[in-house]
Amino acid sequence: MRRTLLRTVGLLGVLGLLLYQPLAAQDTFELEVYPYATAHRGEWELEAYVNHLSRGTKVFDGSVAPTDDQWRFAAQVTRGMSDHWEVGGYVLGARVPGYGLEYAGWRARTRVRAPAGWRLPVNLGLAVEIEWARPLFSESARTLELVPIIERRIAGAQLILNPTIERDMAGPDNGAWEFEPRARLAFPVGEVTMGFEYHGGWSEQVHQFYPTVDFELPGHVELHLGVGFGATTSGDRLVFKTRFEIGDL
Prior knowledge:
By secondary structure, the protein is mainly beta. It has one helix and twelve strands; from the N terminus they run αββββββββββββ.
């Protein structure tokens, strides 16, 4: 497993450099396509996100600091309220060149899913999230996000669609809506799960692509790795992302 992990990390790094193009990440604290599954009733889940904006913006955008060489962190706790409903909260932080370690804000989220007994042709869910952010990281102090979840298994592969819409609730774009779709295609390869993700922002014509790999480790621990590159000339140019998840607590 260790040898497979090292080979995969190296492969992702090389792929990210070879496919390097300018990149803009819509949310570089928590780069995830939300799945249909929720935490079970009474179950706790812990997740940690560590992302490196290797090549980012160079100048301030209003109050927002340049992202070049930032490390961004998110710590999440989730509780299953029923077998179809969970709630969670995040604390956000970052290491910003010239500022050091900074508290970035916090988020609260609830997520529900349709019971399997409904026998729908696709698995359906919905996440609702609100964020409070500091001016150094967003010109909108409050943001509302609605994330429909559509999931389907096709010939052993998992396809997930998140046609996300986001609304600024403060700042210069107060009241504005943004369409930020996300998608993921994943399939097992031996002991790991390989994936390919899309993260977009239509108003700024942002189109990002992430090859990913997931490892199931002992103790109900999942490790997720990915490298992001883009097809447009906006924002961050190269992002390395990781997620650690501990479930069944």
